[in-house]
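Hi X.,

You mentioned you wanted examples for the new student's onboarding notes, showing what a folding record looks like when two proteins sit in one file. Here is a clean example. The first protein comes first, with its sequence line followed by its structure tokens.
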Amino acid sequence: MPLILPLLLAVVLFCVGVYGVLARRNAITMLMSFELMLNAVNLNLVAFDAWHLDGLATGQTMAVFVITIAAAEIGLGLAIILLLFRGHGHVDADSARDLVEAPAVEEAR
């Protein structure tokens, strides 16, 4: 199989992920878009590893590390989203920016 086919699929996946991050404000959709982008990176790693044929399987090894990091990221992200939903009843990313505490202002005496 030519190398261009998995690379084109990876480009499409990555572009869909970027669109999902930039256009959507729902935190769950943003997490899914991050996962799409990481899957596109994994596809590139495995495709280049199969194309290079060095026998070390470095691309596949790096893909396993990316999958591990993605699993940790999704676990932490879902925990934050659940806390946001329990506390405020929404998972809107724009509204979550407003939750930052304002700096304390000393009262003039």
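Then the second protein repeats the pattern, sequence line and then tokens:
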Amino acid sequence: MNNNQKAVDVLQELNQFVNDRIEGYKHAAKLTKDPAHQSYYNDLVNQSTKFSNEINSTISSLGGSTETGTTAKGKIYRGWMDVKNTVTGSDEEAVIESNIYGEEWAQKAYNDALDHKGELPPNVVQMVEKQKNASMATCERLRQMKHAAD
């Protein structure tokens, strides 16, 4: 497998997780009752959409097919969030905790992509690292929101 194909494969898989992130924050924006949280989640939808577009543009430049799907695990998790929020009454802390879990899952996806650092073009590594750092900052802010909600 040539390096371009490896980069395409890694980015297609990563983009499924980024697409899960989009769907997860859309879902959270609908569930939250806090207008500030809703605004933040919508900002994260926009950020994630930008990330997905950036990844798909890179995939295309490497000769691959863009990725618009999500993971099966993400679909199951969003369904579980619905059930959990029905039981808890869309409790703000539960919504935030679900987002933290999702963001930690995104971190794993970015780390998995970076496990192939030696096989990826430098511009791809730089893009993935930049997105991972943004995800880490999001995770930290969500933890602060959780502590404020306690």
